[in-house]
Amino acid sequence: MPKLLCALLLSLAASIAAADYPEQPIRIVVPFAAGGGTDVMARMFAQHLAESLKVPVVVDNRPGAGGTLGSTAVARAPADGYTILLGSISTHAISPNLYARMAYDAVKDFEPLARAGTTPFVMTVHPGVAANTVGELIGNARANPKKYDYASSGNGTTSHLCGALFTQLAGVEITHIPYKSNVPGLTDLLAGRVAFMFDNIIAMQPHIKAGTLRALAVTGTARVASLPNVPTMIEAGLPAYDVTGWFGFWAPAGTPQQVIIRLNAELNRIMREPDVRARAEEQGVDLRKTQAPDEFGRYVQAELAKWRQIVRDAGAKMD
């Protein structure tokens, strides 16, 4: 059979399959541990997708290597719309600039589906740390070099770079302690085995409200509605500090356009639901701006360029 005819038949078969999409369960891969901020978002979207698409939607947590292990699994999955990724600024903007070698290309190996929200991070300390403000922590760290350490959800994650940027701008010597995900890092922070941590508000907020952690600042340019009394890092005395995290959905490269359009429409519809917006706002996540796939793709490329400069300025690099 001529190669052109084979290609046409395969294309026709793919189009027919896409037209009937979905016909089987969909898997959302979360490249971070269960219980973290990305996981919470994934489960909220999975529930609503299952209701609208009439098929089971399951969340598959695959943590490790700053989110790159789970992201690699999706990049290598069949491009049929039944395996999608809920990644983040870590997997598609920071890690590609931090790691000398990557198992996937953040642009070429994925089809952007939709941005799923933005959120600043929050800097929290264990109550045993003698600092009620960022200024006090900086003063203590300068007076006692290497006395403090900070947890992160792994080398190459946003929490790592948030800490690296802080130490750079504050001019302090603080030890970075990377974990496999934010959950064990948060566990050690709650136990007082590390001094502080930058993480998303979803994961930190229950502990802040319970008084088991003390919030010093949020990393965006504006205060967060769910933490109105917590200043920004800019207000706290670091005018050049601005980090806003984001979540996004991707499919493997080559996924049929009909599937991409369908998933984008469903995800954007979910983000417009009043109950979803209200729940996200409680967690410090902003869902106000939805995006078409090509818009999200351009956004990711702009973030890659932005974080290339931040990684370079922070002097952070991983083999």
Give the CATH topology of the largest domain: D-Maltodextrin-Binding Protein, domain 2
Uncertain residue segments: 6-14
Estimated share of beta-strand residues = 15-25%
DSSP strand tally: 9
Order of helices and strands: HEHEHEHEHEHEHEHEEHHH
- What does the radius of gyration come to? 20 Å
Task: Name the average pLDDT.
Answer: 90
CATH class of the largest domain: Alpha Beta
Count of discrete structural domains: 2
Q: How many strands, what sense, and barrel or not for the largest sheet?
A: 9 strands, mixed
Could you characterize what this model shows?
With 319 residues, the protein is of the alpha/beta class. The protein folds into 2 domains: 21-119 and 245-314, Bordetella uptake gene, domain 1 (D-Maltodextrin-Binding Protein, domain 2, 3-Layer(aba) Sandwich), CATH 3.40.190; 120-218, Periplasmic binding protein-like II (D-Maltodextrin-Binding Protein, domain 2). It contains 11 helices and 9 strands. Strands 1, 2, 3, 4, 5, 6, 7, 8 and 9 form a 9-stranded mixed β-sheet that branches. Helix 4 packs across helix 11. Residues 6-14 have low confidence and may be disordered.
